[in-house]
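Quick one: structure tokens for this chain, please?
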Amino acid sequence: MQYLRRLLNIRAMNRLSACLITLNEEHNLPRALASLNGIADEIIVVDSGSSDRTEAIAREHNAAFHFRKWTNYSEQKNHAASLAQSNWILTLDGDEELSSALQSAIVDWKKRSPRFDVYEVARKTWYLGAWIKHSGWYPDWQRRLYRRDAAKYTGLIHEELRFEGKLGRLQGDLLHYTVRTFEEHKAKVEHYSGLSAQQLFENGKRRWRPALWLATPWSFFQNFILRGGFLDGYRGALISRMAARSVRLKYKKLGQLIAVQRQSAKAAR
């Protein structure tokens, strides 16, 4: 009778597929995959052309490894979900891991009938030797657990999980190891500001000068003062400064895209 109860409990559990998209993540991937041990019923890695040991590490952790040429974040993640055998998807970035509290929350969730189609978790970031607890970085709520037929990622950058209905919440933190050096942080800001400018341009945004001069200082004030960045010390100051720089670069690059468009229009006349 006890064996039968265990068997019924196993069958009643919500099967879960963990999906990751990667590119040269050999430094972070072992940590991410290890945190999924005993949590995910399968692990799917969709890689866009790594030249390091990403594939070998994925296979060492019994993950299904697939290649897909890079298009954008949403399409990569949706493709990974389409390869899953389970109805429930847990998305994880290569530089993240589940905390022990979040692992316990997911194990407990798997044993119960789900009340929601989508669940969010708080993400905590490790930055230059410390966990950031303010600065607009925590709690950084992320929608990561969802029923595959009820939600879909949209957006070229800062992809968003779109769905209808109420949102559930799981206890525990998703741990994020975003950058290892300040130089890496600056490089990320440079890269993502270009992507953000491109998305604004494609969405028809054409007024950029007021935002360049007004949104930039507001961004620093908002993150350092209103969101408590000063409580994170010099790290909070750096985060607030780089957030402001990201805003400035985004609108500056948008202005450059608009100028190129106008020049092309003149040349075509």
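Confidence is low (pLDDT under 50) at residues 1-12.
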